[in-house]
Amino acid sequence: MNLGRKSFSGLLVLIFLTLQALPLNAADFQGFSTESDTKAITVLDIIPNGFSYISNNSISWQVDETPERTKFCDEFNTRGCNLDSSAELSITSILPVCNTELENCVESLQFTKSDGSVVNAKFEKYFKGKTFAGIPELNMPGGSRPSLWIASDAPNAAGTEKYVVNTSMSWNYRAGTAAVYGFQASVYAIKDNFSAGYTDSGINTGPNINGKFGSYTNTGEINFMGTCIATEAGYCAERVEFAPNTRINLKMKLSNKVTGWLQGRISSPAIDLTKIDNNFNSLSVTADVVEVPMMYVQFKKSEASAFVNDAYENKWYSSLGFNGRSEWRQFGPNQPVGMELVNALSSAAKDTAAEVRTYWNVSSLPNISNNPCMADTSKLIGFVTTNAMAYSGSAPTWDGSSLQYKVAGLHYLPDGKTLATGKYDLVMRSESARCLYGFTNAPISATISIASADGEQKVATTVVNEKNGWLYLAANGFTFSAPVINIKLTQEAIKKEEVKADIPAPVTTTPKVAAKVTTIKCVKGGTTKTIKAIKPKCPAGYRLKK
Question: How far apart are CA 240 and CA 160, in angstroms?
């Protein structure tokens, strides 16, 4: 099944100007014409675009574009995407591989195979296409391209040793100032697919689907089927699955403006964040690849609930699936409506996932908490990961006593028999956790409970560990449909043992007796001297007067 792509303008996910498709399984994943009563909805992860671009926020969707002023640009200071005092730009910058300069970049890629052996992948090349320079004085990146890496002796499920890294930063530029609002890093297993129909991806201009001049995205794929992680003329890096039990380490140099919370499609993560200087950090993420179930469901509009029909027609879907003959709506797993749709359409989907794909990605996460312990924007606070079909699109919520996180999913894997089981990891800065509870530096323990929608407590395997200033918590093996994960941290009270003060032994002192002074008189001829001393003596030549 194919995966669509996402595009950002400001903080919102936008619908593509070109209708993009999901990969189709002809028997199971079909759309329907706009006139049909039968509709289709998917809830699945979105593949990031394989190109960098600039969005001009001063141009609304209702305003006609011109060759001199377009909504999308592929370089600064052209077609109205100018770096001037009136600029209102949103930029998605794919990061390059690190070189000798200190910049936002990908430093290294490493694989740990199922037998424990480690393979250092080698950077092979960038995919071809338009790039643009950044703004060095603001430490903001330009627009690069996804990179191809070779991991010798670490084959993927298709038998190739090829992987694509797509790491990007999303940021705004307004009147000379820059602010980071998003970050993502993805690794994909791929195989070669050569065909003359593939082109460089990027921003194109010309007549759009309505016949008017405009700027629009071009994924570079044939018929926009969505199977390519990256393209260039005559070539598609076609997505395949990772080998079982693959563990990946991705190391990056990032602006210290990448702060707050991260989310991920990974499992058993270990992170290391090190300050490089006053502008950059080194972020290393090591984690297992995770299997994620996907939902595709068909329904009759005339029979569906008002909520489902409203979601199909009016909600902010991530993209519009289209294969030239039919269409469907695609929702991201971290959208609130995505979680609701999974629950609302579970019967129509026969409570069974359409397929399972393997992922390794991390991305920034909005934090809606007002708690100062959770909302510090000066540093990276935490990391949440899950393999759930849909999940909370924000950091865990704090209710005053526990951290809560909501997930949703269908009960069964594609065979209709095997139960889908959930994984959840929370990695949190230790000082932030202690801040929430007012804990000391003593060791922390945790209680992790999984409550289903009807309040039933689910059994799950839980893990708690603290290492290098980070608290690691995990819950595995729980089932769906809409469980709430509750984590409550505890710490044993410090025993206040009675301390007896040492009372010094009394010191007996013997008073000193003042020595007695004696007075004598000494004479020499007619001279007399009076001498006062403890042991007085007459000077030489004098004698004691009797």
Answer: 9
Neighbours of 534 (CB within 10 A): 9
Q: Which residues contact 211 (CB under 8 A, 6 or more apart)?
A: none
> Residue 395 to residues 235, 326, 367, 465, 474: CA-CA distances in angstroms?
39, 36, 5, 20, 15
C-beta separation of 443 from 489 below 8 A: no
Place of tokens 């690069």: 144
297-312 per-position pLDDT tens digit? 999 999 999 999 998 8
- State how far the Cα of 472 lies from the Cα of 268, in Å rounded to an integer: 9
Collapsing DSSP states into helix, strand and coil, what is residue 439? coil
Lookup result for tokens 């002023």 = 69
Tell me what pLDDT residue 522 has.
Answer: 79
> Quick one: which of 50, 100, 96, 106 has its CA closest to 249?
106
CB atoms near residue 2 (< 10 Å): 23
DSSP state of 213: E
pLDDT on residue 223 = 61
Q: Which two tokens stand for residue 77?
A: 């200071």
DSSP state for residue 132 in the 8-state scheme = B
Q: What residue type is assigned to position 471 of the chain?
A: L
Selection from 147, 430, 415 nearest residue 293 by Cα: 415
> Looking at residues 522-540, what average pLDDT do you find?
73
Residue 388 CB coordination number (10 Å): 28
Backbone angles phi, psi at 323, to 5 degrees: -120, 20
Alpha carbon distances (Å) from 419 to 161, 266, 293, 295, 422: 32, 20, 11, 15, 10
Tokens of 451: 């409550």
User: Which DSSP string corresponds to 66-87?
Assistant: BTTB-SEESSTTSTT---STT-
Instruction: Check residue 223 and report its DSSP letter.
Output: G
Give the Cα separation of 106 and 360 in Å (integer): 15
Output the six-digit token pair for 101.
């300069």
| Strand-strand pairing, 260-265 and 380-386 | parallel
Distances (CA, A) of 161 to 14, 111, 189, 221, 228: 34, 11, 8, 23, 17
Residues 80-125 pLDDT 10s:
999 988 899 999 999 999 998 889 999 999 999 888 899 999 999 9
Q: Binning pLDDT at 50, 70 and 90, where does residue 454 land?
A: low
Sheet strands (E) in 208-277: 213-218, 228-232, 235-240, 247-255, 260-265, 267-275
Q: What is the largest CA-CA distance in the chain?
A: 150
pLDDT digits (tens, 9 = 90+) for 318-344: 666 655 556 788 888 998 899 999 999
Angle at 391 between CA 387 and CA 393, to 5 degrees: 125
Nearest to 367 by CA among 393, 406, 347: 393
Q: Which residues of 414-445 are buried (b: 16+ CB within 10 A; e: fewer)?
A: beeeeebebbbbbbbbbbbbbbbeebeeeebe
Pairing of strands 38-43, 327-331: parallel
Q: Which stretch of 112-121, 148-157, 518-527 has the lowest confidence by average pLDDT?
A: 518-527
Asked whether the beta carbons of 473 and 463 are under 8 A apart, the reply is yes
Q: What are phi and psi of 420, to 5 degrees?
A: -80, 125
pLDDT surpasses 80 at 31: no
